[in-house]
Amino acid sequence: MDTKTDRSFILKGDICYNISPTQFDTRKDAYVVCVDGVSQGVFDELPEKYQGLPLIDCGNMLITPGLNDIHVHAPQYTFRGIAMDLELLDWLNTYTFPEESNYEGLKYASEAYDMFVDDLRHSSTTRAAIFATLHVPATKLLMDKLEDTGLKTYVGKVNMDRNSPEFLCESSAKASLTATRKWLEDVKGAYVNTQPILTPRFTPTCSDELMEGLGNLVQEYGLPVQSHLSENLSEIDWVKGLCPWSTCYGQTYEHFGLLGGLTKTVMAHCVYSTDEEISLMKQAGTYIAHCPQSNMFLSSGIAPIKRYLDEGLNVGLGTDVAGGANLSMFRAISDAVGVSKLRWRCVDQSFAPLTIQEAFYLATLGGGSFFGKVGSFAEGYEFDALVLDDSGIRSVRELDIAQRVERYVYLASEGGTIAQKYVAGARIF
Ligand code: GUN
Ligand code: FE
Question: Structure pTM?
Answer without folding.
Answer: 0.98
